[in-house]
Amino acid sequence: MRMRCAVLDDFQRVATTAADWSPIAGDVEVVSMSEHIAAEEDLAAALADFDIVVTLRERVAFPAGLFARLPRLKLLVASGMRNSVIDFDAARRHGVTVCGTASSATPPVELTWALLLGLARGIVHESMALREGGPWQSTVGADLHGRRLGLLGLGKIGSRVAQVGQAFGMDVVAWSPNLTQERTDEVGVTLAASKEELLATSDFVSVHLALGDRSRGLIGAAELGLMRSTAFLVNTSRAAIVDQDALLAALRAGTIAGAAVDVFDAEPLPADHPLRTAPRLLATPHLGYVTADNYRTYYTQAVEDIQAFLAGAPVRRLG
What we know:
Blueprint: E1 3-7, E2 28-32, H1 40-47, E3 52-55, H2 64-69, E4 75-78, H3 88-93, E5 97-99, H4 106-121, H5 123-131, E6 148-152, H6 156-167, E7 171-175, H7 181-187, E8 190-191, H8 195-201, E9 204-207, H9 221-226, E10 232-235, H10 244-253, E11 258-261, E12 281-283, H11 292-310
Parallel strand pairs: 1-2, 1-3, 3-4, 4-5, 6-7, 6-9, 7-8, 9-10, 10-11, 11-12
């Protein structure tokens, strides 16, 4: 009997065309699911008849309770090689193999700059005004050249964001709990003396930290209060790094010039969520990794992971 594979959160309905699934067609029936299933009980019911699940990034949590509800599940494939919402111990206890795929750092770098430039030049506001017969020029853009770009995190993504900032002629500074002078010298940026100094002196602040105990809630009301009233905040990393209630309050009060976010505490963002109507906010629906090349990599390697599992030699194992 053929195994069954569910592909979760195929919002654009492209998972089965972004890669060649024919190598497993004889052994596996692939079912794409385009609607997000949030509740664990509903997810357990939807996946009850599947042996394999392909999940997109950290969109869906797989806690111990869900594994217990899925006795038929044998293989879980997650795009990317890091996942904080899968209980790997529970997966092992229930005999589920977990595998990952490669993921490019380039798309989130590019989106970071799309958002930063959109904020600086009021692109969305001006475009909507032009289309809707509004005023001709109603904003005054913020300059990048000669301004300070503060990076919270200087890893694979942060360092590439730094290089683009330097190309724009920006003064780039960086800080993270473990950032060293050696690393900032390597990238060619300035090491900020502290998180507080970075926030207080930067014209643009961009978040590029992994989510962990030390980064969760790193930017709250006190930190936002240090920022200049003319400064902008960009977060394409993880929602929990920036306190969303504090950010909403700062945007409403106008204590910062604006923010751009691609990540949220609840995804997809509920229709009545206050961030959907927040002033001074440019928001996108977690598009950081959503590009044709990345999807091709995700699903091509998902097929490879399934092939290897069926052959009894799993590859790219996680946990």
